[in-house]
Amino acid sequence: MKQIKAALLGFGTVGTGVVKAFADNADLLRQRLDAEVVLTRIATRDIERSRGVEVAPGVLTQDVDSILVDPDIDLVIELMGGYEPARTYILKAIAHGKDVVTANKALLALHGPEIFEAARKAGVDVFYEAAVAGAIPVITAIRENLGVNRFQSVFGILNGTCNYILTRMTDEGADFAEVLEDAQTQGYAEADPTFDVEGIDAAHKLSVLISLCFGTPVDFDQIYTEGIGAISALDIQFAREFGYKIKLLAICKEDGGRIEARVHPTMLPQGHPLSDVDGVFNAVRIMGDFSGPIMLSGRGAGMEATAGAVMGDVMAAVRNRHRDASGRSPACGYRSDAIRSLDIKPMDEIQSHYYLRFMARDQPGVLGQIAGILGGEGIGIARMIQTERHVENTVPVVILTHDTCEANIRAALAQIDALDVVGEPSRLIRIEASLD
User: What is the pLDDT of residue 436?
Assistant: First the structure.
């Protein structure tokens, strides 16, 4: 039986899960692969700390370079995270003829094209299923099973921390800060949750999905990104009254040869499959010309879920290498000469329905002033709520608009926020009334 030797860079939570999978399911791997995969080296800064899994003597090392240049190692699994030195290590592994498996969505969002091109020239594989949505096999589905489709749109709930926070806020009426603190205590949120709650993590993953679906590299900085920190229990309550739930949604649509690429809180109709994805679960909804709408959902993070996705990639790499078929499928889903450059549609040109909340003084004529400004910018009012609930000497005025342009909304809100009868900055949440 052919033996494939693998090495692991990074021995954190996911790395521990990978080591456990190698140990617990070694027989299953042999049965499915007709090859033996041996984890021969693990690079980690701390070789003394116990991770709760047994590692054979001599496997742990602090010398990453010895792994990258070792001609006996066929496969490198990168689970360090971050941009550097992960990028340098991956490129060096590729240059020495090794296949690579990575879960590093941030690295791929910024340096994916460089890494994929290096792999193509070297005739090796790069797999990254675990980089997007944990256990959900969305990368393989897009690159392989759904590859005949011209994709029209991708919508994703791609960050379990944000989804957990918004679910708790929805179910319990709690405020963001309170739920975030509890999520950190329970380990669902990092001590520094910025990448999660500001939408950066979801934007990294969306960048990867755009490349796969549309065959175009996306400058990560061009993805409009807005987090959930400004979402209040009041907004969630009004969303429910209008028949919506709020989710942090990653959105990509092809529109006349341009790409919409954005991550922001979004109101979804109650009962839509994506609105029912709660807790730490993730989901991706893809629209293809042949497949129609397809939604995949499951655990988007966690040791077992992510390690399982990593091991699926390990198995794919082993099968290719075992049959001398490395490079069979382009890493980004397209031949290098078929990669195209699509412009990103400016956010000001986005068309959407909008939820607008104003905290206004409770006095005659205020609603008329607000409605007049909206009308002056060509914004139609679809529904409205003006309540008797007082919050610090103001009352909320909530409006849902007809489909309109983002630039018009921004212009109107600038004028409304300048009124002396408005007590705090207006709140805007976009609405996706239809995801088809």
Answer: 62
Q: Are 89 and 80 in contact (CB under 8 A)?
A: yes
Q: Give the per-residue pLDDT at 312.
A: 95
Give CATH superfamily name and number for 2-134+303-335: NAD(P)-binding Rossmann-like Domain (3.40.50.720)
Residues in the chain: 436
pLDDT digits (tens, 9 = 90+) for 372-391: 999 999 999 999 987 766 66
The domain locations on the chain are: 2-134+303-335, 139-297, 348-431
Express each pLDDT in 202-225 by its tens digit.
999 999 999 999 999 888 889 999
Residue 424 has what pLDDT?
86
The CATH class that applies to domain 139-297 reads alpha beta
Amino acid identity, position 376: G
Short-list 11, 9, 7, CA closest to 51:
11
Give the tokens for residue 140: 């393989």
Residue 98 is among the residues annotated as catalytic for this protein: no
**Dihedral over Cα of 67, 68, 71, 75: its sign:** positive
- CA dist 289 and 266 (Å) reads 25
With 0.90 as the threshold, say if the pTM is over it: yes
Among 20, 105, 205, 245, the one annotated catalytic: 205
pLDDT < 50: residue spans in the chain: none
Q: What is the DSSP string of 363-383?
A: STTHHHHHHHHHHHTTPPEEE
| Nearby residues of 180 by Cβ (< 8 Å), 6 or more positions away | 165, 189, 193, 197
Q: Which fold has domain 348-431?
A: Alpha-Beta Plaits (3.30.70)
